[in-house]
Amino acid sequence: MGTLATGYNTIDVAAAREAGVTVCNVPHYCEDAVAQHALALLLCLCNKVQRSSQAVRAGHWTQAVEESHQSLSPIALAGKRLGVLGYGSTGQRMAALGLALGMEVLLCSRTQKAAPAGCRWVDMETLFRESDVVSLHCPLNGETRGLVGRRLLALLKPTALLINTARGGLVDESALAEALNQGKLAGAGLDVLTQEPPPPSCPLLTARNCVITPHVAWAAQEVRARLIDEVAENLRCFLAGHPRNVVS
Predict the structure, then answer these.
(1) Domain co-membership, 204 together with 241
(2) Out of 137, 167, 173, 230, which one is annotated catalytic?
(3) Can you give the residue range of the structural domain that contains 120?
(4) pLDDT tens digit string along 110-140?
(5) Residue 235 — pLDDT band, cuts 50, 70, 90?
(6) Which of 9, 72, 104, 132 is the most buried (most CB within 10 A)?
């Protein structure tokens, strides 16, 4: 059994193992693209891109310029703290982007590894408490489902931003919508939701300052081609009797 993705949370791995079914994934094919999208969501929020563009299209150029000193004022990222939750391949790429922007990077992951200068390992509570931006890059499993709920969201600064390009199930969507609407969190940029596509009742669809894209962080043509090549190689190796990228 193979998945056309790195994550394999849609497969009952335990049942597959019990049945003697090999499960393969495709690691390391889209880290740069996903980190790029996480940064795009962050910059969209920081530079008020959507709201400024809408104002100009509506004929409010002058008002938008005036508002750039107030509600449309951009957020400068240099000197601020980026919290990266999950320091696998994508988390490492995101940390590097944060450093390139002049940010201090806080790291929290299940296992610690060598990190470049400008990064600091902290516990999860410290990461949420001290970060100006938190970007999620951890897998979805029994331990992480609903991880970012009311308790962790309450630790964030009211000026903080949350970015999620990992898995929607990491976040308690009702708690996030509540924090956004009550001004306890400045904004969120999401490429993933718990249910995709979301039902009309999804609270994040109407939440304040919440930018949502339809799980397309991985979807660049170059990345799609790489994915197909890797899946084909997985199949060739399995048929040859030496499966690769085995997760179970």
Answers:
(1) no
(2) 167
(3) 32-56+73-217
(4) 999 999 999 999 999 999 999 999 999 999 9
(5) very high
(6) 132
- Per-residue DSSP letter, 182: T
Q: Residue 197: count other Cβ atoms within 10 Å of its Cβ.
A: 9
Q: Tell me, what's the pLDDT at 72? A: 83
* b/e sequence 126-158, b meaning 16+ C-beta within 10 Å: ebbbbbbbbbbbbbbeeebeebbeeebbebbee
Total domains, the chain: 2
Report CA-CA distances (Å) from 234 to 9, 11, 25, 209, 240: 19, 17, 8, 41, 10
For residues 61 and 226, what is the distance between their CA atoms, to the nearest angstrom?
42
Residue 225, number of CB atoms within 10 A of its CB: 11
Q: What is the pLDDT of residue 178?
A: 98
Tell whether 40 and 122 lie within a shared domain.
yes
Active site residue 173: no
* pTM for the whole structure: 0.92
- Tell me whether residue 167 is one of the annotated catalytic residues: yes
- Catalytically annotated residue among 196, 222, 233, 236: 196
Rounded Cα distance between 177 and 185, Å, is 9
Taking all residues of the chain, what is their mean pLDDT, rounded to a whole number? 95
196 counts as catalytic: yes
Q: Are residues 123 and 222 in the same domain?
A: no
What is the rounded CA–CA span in Å between residue 234 and residue 23? 10
What is the per-residue pLDDT for 66?
A: 85
At 190, is the secondary structure helix, strand, or coil?
strand
Stretch 192-198: mean pLDDT: 97
Residues 51 and 154 placed together within one structural domain of the fold: yes
Q: Domain containing 232 — which CATH number?
A: 3.40.50.720
The answer to whether residues 107 and 204 belong to one domain is: yes
